[in-house]
Amino acid sequence: MILWGLLGSLAAGSMTAVGALPVAFGRSVSPQARDTMLGFAAGVMLSASFFSLILPGLERGAAVYGGVVASALLAGAGIAAGAAMVAALNRWLPHEHFITGPEGADPGALPRIWLFVIAITIHNFPEGMAVGVGFGSGDIGHGLSLAIGIGLQNAPEGLAVAVALRGQGYSAARAVWIATLTGLVEPVGGVIGAAAVTVSAYALPFGLTFAAGAMLYIISHEIIPETHRHGHQDRATTGLIAGLILMLVLDVTLG
């Protein structure tokens, strides 16, 4: 299951490079299309958080701990802990977003490009962890649906990162290369997530909801505000609904 978690999260992370490829050929994307695609990514993550992580976590928790109340309390603790982890990384790690600017600790002499990379890494790590936890549950179909869903939403994110880097003055080749590297943190999260939940059946319910909480924080704190920043709320919401439905179908048919 750890190997499946590694391979699944690696495949999902590699879609970041696929999404960035148009920039290598001089293609760009309109702000409206960008916000629609990021809305789609948010919809996939939102659907995956509930249908692929929280609901299975509640079911496994009820089976392991012998009651729905204990399962619900554990799920709530897992969600809160996952969100708190990402919030702490946001606070402690120096990083910079393309639009909102610098956040976190004092970066000192750290080059600006590394601040961008750290910001994207904070975003991508929980996604890889979610894929790893999905495979770590022992259900290959469940993990596969998460890997496909996260991979699909990584493509527009990769394009958005590459376009933003081009806007900062980086060459097309370097923008694509950096976007590709940011996706490679996902296999790290995948291995950690799969290993953590395969240790014990008692850890699985918490691991599933922990991964969900981390992604929910990113959706609310990063993606949705970004898609609404330029007045394209309608397009972004349409993309979100489309992504949510697609991930729901993937989870039902594969998981």
TrEMBL record:
GO terms for cellular component: plasma membrane. It comes from the Bacteria. One of its GO terms (molecular function) is zinc ion transmembrane transporter activity. The chain crosses the membrane at residues 36-55, 62-89, 109-125, 175-196, 202-224, 236-254. It holds the Pfam family Zip. Belongs to the ZIP transporter (TC 2.A.5) family. This is ZIP family metal transporter. The lineage of its organism: Bacteria, Pseudomonadati, Pseudomonadota, Alphaproteobacteria, Rhodobacterales.
